[in-house]
Design a protein that fits this description.
The complex is a heterotetramer, with 2 copies of chain A and 2 copies of chain B. Chain A is α+β, with helices and mostly antiparallel strands. Chain A has 11 helices and 9 strands. The longest helix of chain A is centred in the middle third of the chain and has 37 residues. In chain B, strands 1-4-5-8 form a 4-stranded mixed beta sheet. A 4-stranded antiparallel beta sheet of chain B has the order 2-3-7-6, with no helix packed on it. The chains are: A alpha+beta, B alpha+beta.
Chain lengths: 372, 418, 372, 418
């Protein structure tokens, strides 16, 4: 496993960071999080066309750039840092990975170029109103009706479910296997409802399918394996996104205490503040290391990759919210106000804590996948 | 003259209420009668609208009011602190002008101590009071002010001498909030509520007779206000309860309560709502999960132990024993409990923790917990301040070196604000 | 439930504290923990005869003083504070409670006066080599042989098993019920082996019973209820003992940092040391409150008593070892040496963490017994 | 003259070993040959028993030695620090007298810096060196001294000027440990091992020529020793491994290793032995318990993340990148891991955690973990010192106010010892 980024990867990160500093300062984030759509289409186009980020992890033969999980994760880390409002995670990570891993060659040709160019905004609908992201929890049924299938049931916590024009939906086939299905937003019998998201920078929706026509991606037996790979990819990217957000919180809190005076001296000169800052550094660096290892393990095809991915998510779940709690505390009263930016990352940390499975669930998954 | 006996007080209050209490009066009419009688603030001196009773004896008065379900004088909010401060340090003019309005509830007060530049360090106030053309001219910012948006008067701490040391350059004023130059902005919190205000003061004017106490003695006067605030922290937090009866006066009173409590409706959620953990777990189908049960039991154990610690402290107090350490750790324990409860509610909620409002469990209560607990370790003295106090006052450990208290305030480093 | 001690109880505590300060200073503890016997018979006699502590919780009609769990727990709290080496917990808490709760009137007359006077040293053998203290884990069988029973199997972690002259043994009857049996040390077929105790102030033994004659205490159906009451009593007393030890550690560490200078200033003047001392105070006070509440709940017959007892033990398990870890750390290098006294309480804390069930097990028991 | 190329070094070492290496020699005989050749300490200057090679190039020498399974010069323990300090600051006499014995292993060294009165504060040493009748007379106590019980010489930091400020009143000496007035007592730890000594020095004598560096410059010399100690903290901790071969020299070498490693045999246990968690849980039948699994996964996750963080740091170093924060947090992470692993081993062991020696799981290893992890957060810089370093050096936060460094040392408050 590699433990450093190449010069190209470092440069790639710098480009994204500069882009997001310009396009997604907190003023822009506040504007988008209070908007109806929830993101800025101009930024989305620029991110797709100028930086090519939507194409990152899609193979070259389908219009993508063919980069690994590591590069995709660098992008999400930077987006987590900037708290970018955009359907990137839903489309370029979740939907794209699902189609890459599940689709037939023909299906990839049909769907991936649009996702790669950013023209299509996709998402992946897995969790149901009472369930999580584990394959066994999926109860929605898909019944075969000739060449197409029909979906019946509800999906919840669907990321960017209102913005998406293409749904990949996990449902249970008559043979008991899991299937991943493509459903365009133009399909009949799809009802979308926005959910009230605690984190307004990341929109969620509930989607009801009532006899909705859908295309099975790949074979009727391959769904589990495809979903497992997809899930690992998206969890690794989420862990990196969370590490990026945590690092930003840590840096901003440090900057604040360095600037701030109390009792006639810098708050940063109080030993307790210093030690808290040291502990925050430790937590964030460990979270980063685990998240990077997760992406690298997937790119390496490491036998323990699923375990490492879950390790990273469990660690990120704890580290991000813990850093957010410390960051609010270090700001004092002002940190609890809406006008202070800390709260925006706090809410992202809180939502990310459970998104794609919470720490306890990932710890159990980690041990079950641990070969050692 | 000796103090009345408990029975005499009971008899007199009963006689007064029997004769005067009428729930069909308007609230203000009744309170004016009450104030004239001296029973509205029995612990005030006789010459200032009271009966000169001790605090203990005035609890007996409350007791009789409850018998009659009679409404008492207004006492929620900062007004009680204003009354106590004015009685202690105010001039006769202040007492004449303000005490009645405080007790009838017709005039509302706010406290203008905290500033954006000095959160835990109240004596570091840098709002200026400059004496020009026979008047005080005030400039500065105040923050964490409850009820400022509907207050008539403010208790203001401002700096009148920049060459004096920190605690000696402050003076204390009563400021008319309804004047040009006083701008009140609601301060929204991360949980969406707006319990506090920022007050921007620009060339606002105070007549010299509205200074309270001596020039440069503002910190001393503020200490009185703060002492009453702390004393009330247990007592006064038993916010007034609404009374569910149809008569006119109850309706007016309930409106008053609603109005004053509005900023605080999320306060239960900032404690972490340990009381809801098991209910939440059962509702979410997670109460059978051994890992969840471990976490619930941890929080429940901590919360119960904290509650029993508080009761040990109260029991010791009631027996007149010297206060032990158990009385000082409650606030810090509450922070731990709230933070841990937040974690466990999140674990129980699972994906639902991403939602808010009526998409969240228990009609939004769970979501409100998740974004409200960070307040508990900040408001009313941060955890760090609590630990300083515990180590210095209870454990008698050395005080932090101070570099800000023994030189002219203008030389003390401070935050640039605004 | 009461949340304060009476003046008599406070005085009682003072008497014990003065006694232990005189008889069990750390020099004496070190001497006993390195001795063969493990305790000083002269101190034991004095504790029994002069202070009457062994009689505390035994009813007056059987030679005891008839005090409640609260008084017994005050005694164990002070002993935990002083780290007294003596078979008090085994005899006056465990064995005595078991006989009080399980025995017939005749059996109480037979056994309790000797325990009350301190002449008899008793202990209670419950845990087996692979088990814990929960009733369901008891596998040792008791077969009826006329008026007496015969015991077969091994007990481990038996407190003061070498010093005891009377064993109360938990075993499974043919009817499936639990039985508590009295076995004198003169019985045939009892093999005792000392176990190497991490905490040398608290000796443990393994005892093998091989067709050992034994007397069933009470009826063949009453064992579960009697053991449940006994267990609650001993756990409440242990929680108080642990709170007492934790408080001593906290006070000694505070005294050390107040005395100690580094970088030309008192260690106690460093903000981080101050805050740690505040946190230790919080932890110890919460543990004390819970332990006191446990004893009070038992005396009151509170419906939630078992839950409160387990809450107190879970809390004490965490608080005691945590306080010990902090205490070592506050001493620095010297705190890790054998010659510094901190290590003696550290080992008691570590052993107590699991004695009579660890924190996790008690948390589960707490919820199962919670009526709210 | 230019430095040799890697190939030249390889060739020369191979030639030398082919001719001279004979595992049937005695260890001392061989090391004398080695020292004479210059290949025993190739990074020492040519005039002082070395070859003047760079540190990197001397790794090549090691490489060739491994090819031959040849034993190198002695380098475990404090001797390496003694050699480096003498080379940097010692006189020619020191070099002549000590370097050979250091390299052959015939003479053993110890470091006399720490004192009971100044644990984390080495420059606060208060051991006296008084100049009387042409000799230095030493009085004081030293502590945390490894190998002092069999050392021939000690590196001593002692105070020669009590009117100078803290860091300027110290001088550095080489002290003969085998003299009256030097008493070494083993210091037993709570886990029963005795890895360290206390050294009581009473009127011990040092001839003036065994002062190292200038008078009053002892702290500067000590800094060299400490720098080599820190640099070795990663490298030298790869303690020498025993070699399982029958010839005489290996037997003697293995005895040396055993002897020197004896104080450290419990060191693996102070890390918490995360590697044993799953094995322990399976052996104890607890691996199926969901609550236990949660705790194992937490520790394992933390330990893995810490390991990967260390590898990130090494990878960056290998690429010549500036050191990032990831290099400084390893020690603090190790403390967290060890403490958490102790908790989980306890949870797994259940009642067995009360036992020790061969009554404990895994033949006493588990018990040794339980009473050894507290060392990890103290030895080699406490967690508190680590956090100070991280916040001040990495995060560039303000330094703690010092009151001890700018006045005569005799006026600085210090601990009374002994």
């Amino acid at each position: 496993m590699k433990f450093s980024f190449t010069a190209e990867q470092e440069e790639f990160r710098s480009v994204i960071r500069r882009f997001l500093e310009a396009k997604s300062p907190t003023t822009a984030v506040r504007k988008q999080m209070e908007s109806d759509r929830g993101y800025d289409p101009a930024v989305w186009r620029s991110l797709a066309n100028d930086l090519g980020l939507t194409a990152l992890h899609i193979p070259e033969e389908y219009g993508g750039a063919g980069f690994g999980v590591t590069e995709l994760a660098i992008a999400t880390e930077e987006m987590g840092r900037a708290l970018l409002c955009a359907p990137f995670f839903a489309s370029a990570v979740m939907a794209s990975s699902a189609i890459v891993h599940a689709g037939s060659d023909e299906q990839k040709q049909a769907y991936l170029p649009g996702l790669a160019s950013g023209e299509t905004i996709g998402t992946l609908a897995v969790a149901e109103p009472d369930g999580g992201w584990n394959a066994e929890a999926i109860k929605m049924s898909a019944t075969a009706a000739g060449a197409v299938y029909r979906l019946h049931g509800a999906k919840s916590y669907v990321l960017d479910g209102l913005s998406a024009s293409l749904f990949v939906v996990a449902a249970r086939l008559a043979n008991g296997h899991l299937g991943l299905f493509a459903v365009p937003d133009t399909a009949d019998c799809v009802t979308r409802r926005p959910l009230k998201s605690m984190d307004p920078t990341r929109r969620l929706a509930r989607i009801d399918f009532d006899n909705t026509p859908a295309t099975l991606l790949g074979s009727p037996e391959g769904g589990e394996a495809a979903y497992a790979k997809t899930f690992d990819t998206m969890v690794a990217c989420l862990a990196c996104e969370m590490a990026g957000g945590a690092e930003r919180l840590r840096e901003d809190a440090l900057e604040y205490v360095n600037m701030r005076v109390q009792f006639g001296r810098s708050i940063a000169s109080f030993q307790v503040t210093k030690h808290k800052a040291a502990d925050m550094l430790l937590e964030v660096e460990l979270a980063k290391s685990a998240a990077y290892a997760a992406a690298a393990a997937l790119d390496d095809g490491d036998a323990d990759a699923s375990a490492i991915v879950s390790l990273a998510k469990a660690g990120a779940s704890e580290a991000y919210i813990q850093t957010a709690i410390h960051a609010v505390q270090m700001h004092g009263g002002i940190g609890f106000t809406y006008e202070n930016d800390t709260q925006m990352w706090f809410k992202r940390a809180k939502a990310s804590e459970v998104f794609l499975g919470d720490a306890a669930w990932h710890r159990e998954r980690m041990l079950q996948n641990w070969s050692a | 003259m000796t103090e009345m006996t408990e029975q005499q007080v009971r008899d007199e209050v009963r006689a007064f209420l029997s004769q005067n209490w009428d729930p069909n009066r308007s609230l203000i009419e009744w309170r004016n009668i009450l104030v004239d009688s001296g029973w509205g603030a029995a612990h005030y001196p006789k010459e200032w609208l009271g009966k000169g009773l001790s605090a203990a004896m005035s609890l007996v008065v409350d007791d009789v009011f409850r018998e009659f379900e009679a409404i008492g004088a207004a006492r929620m909010g900062i007004r009680t602190l204003a009354g106590a401060t004015i009685l202690n340090h105010g001039s006769d003019m202040h007492k004449r002008k303000f005490l009645r309005g405080i007790l009838t509830g017709e005039e509302t007060w706010c406290q203008l101590f905290s500033e954006p530049g000095s959160g835990s360090d109240l004596a570091g106030a840098a709002t200026r009071a400059d004496f020009k053309d026979g008047k005080w001219v005030i400039n500065g910012q105040k923050v964490w002010t409850t009820s400022a948006h509907h207050a008539h008067f403010g208790l203001l701490l401002a700096r009148t001498d920049w060459d004096a040391v920190k605690h000696k350059g402050l003076s204390y004023f009563i400021i008319d909030m309804h004047q040009p130059g006083v701008d009140v902005h609601q301060l929204k919190q991360m949980n969406g509520h707006a319990s506090f205000n920022q007050v921007f003061i620009t060339d606002a004017v105070i007549e010299p007779e509205f200074q309270v106490g001596e020039l440069g003695e503002g910190w001393k006067v503020a200490t009185t206000t703060l002492m009453h605030e702390r004393r009330g922290a247990d007592g006064a937090r038993r916010y007034e309860q609404k009374i569910n009866r149809p008569e006119r006066i109850y309706q007016e009173y309930n409106e008053e309560v609603d109005h004053l409590l509005a900023p605080y409706i999320w306060y239960p959620q900032r404690t972490g709502r340990v009381d809801l953990l098991i209910e939440h777990a059962k509702a979410a189908g997670r109460y059978g999960d051994p890992a969840v049960r471990q976490e619930i039991a941890k929080v429940l154990g901590m919360a119960k132990a904290a509650e029993w610690t508080a009761r040990r402290a109260r029991a010791a107090q009631n027996q007149g024993k010297p206060q032990g350490p158990e009385g000082s750790i409650g606030k810090l324990a509450a922070s731990h409990v709230a933070r841990a409860a937040n974690r466990v509610h999140t674990m129980i909620a699972g994906p639902n923790a991403m939602l808010t409002g009526d998409d969240s469990w228990m009609d939004g209560t769970i979501a409100e917990i998740l974004v409200s607990t960070p307040a508990i370790s900040i408001a009313g003295g941060t955890d760090e301040i609590q630990r300083n106090i515990i180590s210095e006052r209870i454990l008698q450990m050395p005080k932090e070196l101070r570099t800000d208290t023994d030189r002219p305030f203008r030389e003390v480093p401070r935050n640039q604000v605004g």
